[in-house]
Amino acid sequence: MLNTPDLIALVRELALPLAGFAVVTSASPGPVNVIAATSGANFGWLRTLPHVFGATSGFTSLILAMGFGLDSVLRHTAWLHMALKVLWATFLTYIAIKLFMARADATASARLRKAPSARQGLLAQWTNPKAWIVAATGIATYTRTGDA
């Protein structure tokens, strides 16, 4: 168990690297950032805020789930790990086919009736491969096990 001075030293040691990691990984291009930017351009920043808050909540919940053991469960439950791989691969293939089959036309943006919701932002993070990779990397890099 860490005492207070050790905890303060640990926070000081990790604060700057963790902050840099958070800035770089959250600002790098990814599907959720592209959706937010597109929504902001089409609907304005105020109507896009619910989606951004939802995405933030989704990513926070993903990191908490990974930090509190989902990573361990996936490493020790081979069938669940494989099922999730198949599910995500199927989902990404579906999205790729939809994008490939979509026709670009001048009225495409006119079909967008409303900005994406907070729920859509939250769910986007849980289906976002980049979010899973960043969460797993962050947990593995910025946590310590045992008495270390």
Give the helices and strands, then pairings.
Blueprint: H1 4-27, H2 31-43, H3 45-76, H4 78-101, H5 118-126, H6 129-142
Helix pairs in contact: 2-3, 3-5, 3-6
Count of helices?
Answer: 6
Overall SS class: mainly alpha
Low-confidence stretches: none
What fraction strand? under 5%
Overall strand count:
0
Query: Could you tell me how far the N terminus lies from the C terminus, measured between alpha carbons in angstroms?
Result: 10 Å
Structural domain count? 1
* Average pLDDT rating: 81
What percent of the residues sit in helical stretches (DSSP H or I)?
over 70%
Identify the overall geometry: globular
Main beta sheet: strand number and arrangement?
A: none
> From the alpha-carbon coordinates, what is the Rg to the nearest angstrom?
19 Å
H/E series, N to C?
A: HHHHHH
Subcellular location: Cell membrane
Transmembrane segments: 52-70, 82-101
Keywords: Cell membrane, Membrane, Transmembrane, Transmembrane helix
Membrane topology: Multi-pass membrane protein
